[in-house]
Amino acid sequence: TARGGLGVNDNKFNSTVFLLTGIPGQEDVHLWISIPFCLIYVISIVGNSVILFIIKTDPTLHEPMYIFLSMLAITDLGLSISTIPTILGIFWFNSREISLDACFAQLFFIHSLSFIESSVLLLMAFDRFVAIRDPLRYASILTPPRIAKMGLVCVLRGVALIFPLPFLLKRFQYCRANVLSHSYCLHQEVMKMACSDITVNSIYGLFIIVSTVGLDSLLILLSYVMILKTVLSITSLAERLRALNTCVSHLCAVLLFYTPMIGLSVIHRHGKGSSPLLQILLGYIYLLVPPLINPIVYSVKSKHLRARIIRVFVK
């Protein structure tokens, strides 16, 4: 129905669905393209579930570092599950339509889980800082109740900041040809489909990015500066390398998460002339690669975890 002074002729644009995009120009081979996507999902879900199962069932792994790792695995699982229906729907059944409500629900989960992941990466940086700076008091600083409170704050922050977005989007009138450039819904893209004034959404979106990703990445950088200072004060070279080695997997997780996320944000805000394919590729990397690679990196780098995983599968 036409509302808000739109003429009868505009009815066809005042759509109640958005159209998602797979990989433009490759529609004929979508079924083949779905094979790597399925593999990525299977490996992500199995990898993160195995890590969760092993950390839960092995009492020797109930240490702060592994508790934070299990938080990361839960968030990665959530991110994978929230994008599966629409991505595989496009590649398998060519179902590109998504209702406004389903789209708003999906973007709520994608954004809140992304910001929770950002917070968890910050907690993991703090964990590494405490472990290297004050190893003797490590267990007494990061006690399970304290870790639980930190985890709860992360979840509440992610959910509270994203909660208004679906409601802010719902009040808009959508009368453009509602084709989104990804296989899932993102706030910065959906708001551009509105033919209303999006200033509030734009400012609020920028505020969220700065107060989560901006702040977290700055604090992670700061904790690594402090870690480096501590490491350089250690006299033995072997000890230095050992201390730095405990940070490698976390650094990989940080780079994997922030690089495509910041790239995608910049392209959506300023990349008017950027290649659509680059935007689509970054979108897939941002949501699919961290859940896939994180369990692999941590299993390879942590001897303890690796030994437990081998024992489970060799049994």
From TrEMBL:
It comes from the Eukaryota. InterPro entries: GPCR_Rhodpsn, GPCR_Rhodpsn_7TM, Olfact_rcpt, OR51/52/56-like. CDD domains: 7tmA_OR51-like. One of its GO terms (cellular component) is plasma membrane. It is a multi-pass membrane protein. Keywords: Cell membrane, G-protein coupled receptor, Membrane, Olfaction, Receptor, Sensory transduction, Transducer, Transmembrane, Transmembrane helix. Residues 47-298 form the G-protein coupled receptors family 1 profile domain. It is found in: Cell membrane; Membrane. The chain crosses the membrane at residues 29-55, 67-92, 104-126, 147-169, 203-227, 248-268, 280-300. One of its GO terms (molecular function) is olfactory receptor activity. One of its GO terms (biological process) is cellular response to lipid. Belongs to the G-protein coupled receptor 1 family. This is Olfactory receptor.
